[in-house]
Amino acid sequence: MKTTLPLSVIICTFNRADYLKQVFQSLISQTLMREKYEIVVIDDGSSDNTKEVVASYIKAIPIKYFYQNNAGLASAKNHGVYASCGEILLFLDDDDIADPNLFGEHLKTHGNYPEKFYAVLGYTDWALHLNVTPLMRYVTEVGCFMFAYPYIKNGDILDYPFFWGGRSSCKRTFLIEHGVFTPVFRFGCEDIELGYRLSKHNLKVIYNNEAISYMIRPVGFDDFCKRLIKQGRSQYRFSRMYTEEEEVQKWCEMPGHEKAWEETKPIFDAKRRSALALEEIAQMKLDMGLGLDKQTETLLHQAYRWVFKACKIKGIVEAKEEHACTLASLPNSAYGSKNK
Question: Residue 236: what are its φ and ψ, rounded to 5°?
Fold first, then answer.
């Protein structure tokens, strides 16, 4: 029988050993006594030295390590849920370092809201050592493609779209009773889809801006475009699970996506190159100490917004086309039964 602890911190990782070192180093300084928590690391098929990095911190922090063949983020999170023994589960990304009070703040808020349907959302900022580029500032503070913190305030009681993976915690019993992550999601939407299901059981999310973590991995234009394409693909999968739910269809940006892609596709590459050129100009001005004038900033933000929204649409369309090809490849009888 498992010994129950107040807190289990679940970290799912894949080939990020160097970042993981920094994460573990930050956890050594937690103000919460180590006998009150465990770190559950789920290695999702890494081929780097992740296992060795974990082993090097075993004596410094209470770690449990589990390896699985690569199956994606949702599967790894489920592995962590079932391997954990904490009353509270905190999901921490493998590229986020923790403020010394992170664990304690999550537990404190759960203590203030003990009902099992309450979850807690913490605050994530860029690590202090990073050079926060115009793009990084845009995706978090302006366009809110990563976080939407400008729209919420400390203590807000929020609905399921704020059950953000990597910075949220919840009661373990609530997940076990009402459902865990859907393994089809390898990246993106696994948290919101679960949150949507849990909302049928009154899930509420409390925002605590003192539960702080810091993202240590910088974001570049090309990588962020790829991220958003993956996000769009996951949104399509999410939408297919709830085809009659207007709320889900809207969140997944399904209405009008076909027409939007017809208009977007012919100019997608040109717009992408234009955004990169504007980004280069903006960075040159910053490097020269000239600052970013309002006109350049406005043009850059407009370019970012267009390209990033287009990337999500591209992902939706790609996933939809793949789904159609899969259906078409089925035997006629099976295909016919799907369309009756």
Answer: -65, -45
Q: Across the strands, what pairs with 7? A: 37, 88
d(CA 80, CA 180) in angstroms, rounded, equals 11
- What are 42-95's pLDDT values in tens digits? 999 999 999 999 999 999 999 999 999 999 999 999 999 999 999 999 999 999
Closest CA to 165 of 218, 67, 254, 94: 94
Q: Which CATH class is domain 5-215?
A: alpha beta
Domain regions of the chain by residue span: 5-215, 221-338
170 bridge partner residues? 89
Longest dimension (CA), the chain: 67
Helix, strand or coil, per DSSP, at residue 5: strand
Residue 69: both structure tokens together: 């063949």
What whole-number distance in Å separates Cα of residue 38 and Cα of residue 228? 32
3-class DSSP assignment, residue 340: coil
Q: Which of 329, 293, 264 is nearest to 134 (CA)?
A: 293
CA distance 24 to 214: 13
- pLDDT score of 333 more than 60: no
Which of 149, 154, 158 minimizes the C-alpha distance to 215? 149
